[in-house]
């Protein structure tokens, strides 16, 4: 049955693309693309790269806290480099999580415990997803927009079920993270019970959990900010604050574990929420595509990390020269 699950992802994305092509006129999408200002897009690229630096450092720092809570050694510079590499692999390889698997296994091997390393990465990602879901629900409930559950706007389904969308997204993301945890744990071996209890003590510690929450909030804010940059580059004439709930819905859809490097559900959700809010489904598709381009460019330092690692591995080390490691 493994081959069935392998084919379900691309087939699901292709089906979604087909639905988008059927519901959104290609000519309208082409026209919306022409509204993207090259100068604004260039500024958005520079800003997205800067925002990604802050977000990546926050994610890496969060990973360090979780790993150390499990008794694994991990420095912040190493975590930042591995996080950039993981981001690049995630946005360029079909699975969308290959980078996280790579950093989990690599760190686990260097620490001498692959299972514990994988568990640290999955729990770190789960903590970030939990904060993102909480912020999404808060935005849907408080920020005035077409997705506000009390808005009463006659703009289609989101005007009445925005809250339901957030809850459904939370459930889907939660189930996806749970499935990932099971697959990763079964693939690298069982995680000792002491690791789980140690992680609970570490995260519940008053000195740790506030830092994890704050770092996650900053990282999520970076993703939302990048989406707003994409909307600005695409020429969306709307108040940025009103786009925040839409951004959260799109980001939740991008986290659904049925995508190709993040592409698929993200564009579908953007077309739906932008169309229902009166901004145009075609504009939503373009904003999601521009956001994807910004994310890819912002992850390019990860490619440099990969090239540097390969070059370093080709250089004879101390073991090859007869010298012992320090």
From TrEMBL:
Pfam families: LPG_synthase_TM (PF03706). The keyword Membrane applies. InterPro entries: L-PG_synthase/AglD. The chain crosses the membrane at residues 42-64, 161-179, 208-231, 243-264, 284-307. It is found in: Cell membrane. It is a multi-pass membrane protein. Keywords: Cell membrane, Membrane, Transmembrane, Transmembrane helix. PANTHER family: BLL5419 PROTEIN. This is Uncharacterized protein.
């Amino acid at each position: 049955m493994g081959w069935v699950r392998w084919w379900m992802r691309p087939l699901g994305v292709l089906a979604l693309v087909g639905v988008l092509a059927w519901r959104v006129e290609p000519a309208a999408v082409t026209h919306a693309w022409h509204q993207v200002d090259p100068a604004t897009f260039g500024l958005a690229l520079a800003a997205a790269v800067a925002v990604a630096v802050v977000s990546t450092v926050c994610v890496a720092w969060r990973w360090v806290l979780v790993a150390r809570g499990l008794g694994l050694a991990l420095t912040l510079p190493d975590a930042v480099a591995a996080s950039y590499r993981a981001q690049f692999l995630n946005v360029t390889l079909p699975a969308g999580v290959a980078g996280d698997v790579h950093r989990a296994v690599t760190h686990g091997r260097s620490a001498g415990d692959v299972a514990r390393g994988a568990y640290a990465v999955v729990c770190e990602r789960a903590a970030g997803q939990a904060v993102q879901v909480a912020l999404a629900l808060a935005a849907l409930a408080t920020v005035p927009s077409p997705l506000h559950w009390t808005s009463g706007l006659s703009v289609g389904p989101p005007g009445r079920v925005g809250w339901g969308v957030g809850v459904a997204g939370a459930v889907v993301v939660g189930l996806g993270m749970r499935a990932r945890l099971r697959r990763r744990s079964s693939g690298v071996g069982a995680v000792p019970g002491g690791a789980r209890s140690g992680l609970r003590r570490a995260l519940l510690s008053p000195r740790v959990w506030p830092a994890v929450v704050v770092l996650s909030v900053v990282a999520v804010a970076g993703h939302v900010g990048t989406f707003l940059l994409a909307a600005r580059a695409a020429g969306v004439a709307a108040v940025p604050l009103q786009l925040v709930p839409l951004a959260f819905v799109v980001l939740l859809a991008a986290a659904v574990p049925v995508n190709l490097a993040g592409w698929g559900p993200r564009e579908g959700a953007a077309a739906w929420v932008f169309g229902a809010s009166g901004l145009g489904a075609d504009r939503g598709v373009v904003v999601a595509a521009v956001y994807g381009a910004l994310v890819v460019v912002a992850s390019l330092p990860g490619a440099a990390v990969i090239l540097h690692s390969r070059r370093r591995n080709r250089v004879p080390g101390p073991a090859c020269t007869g010298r012992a490691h320090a």
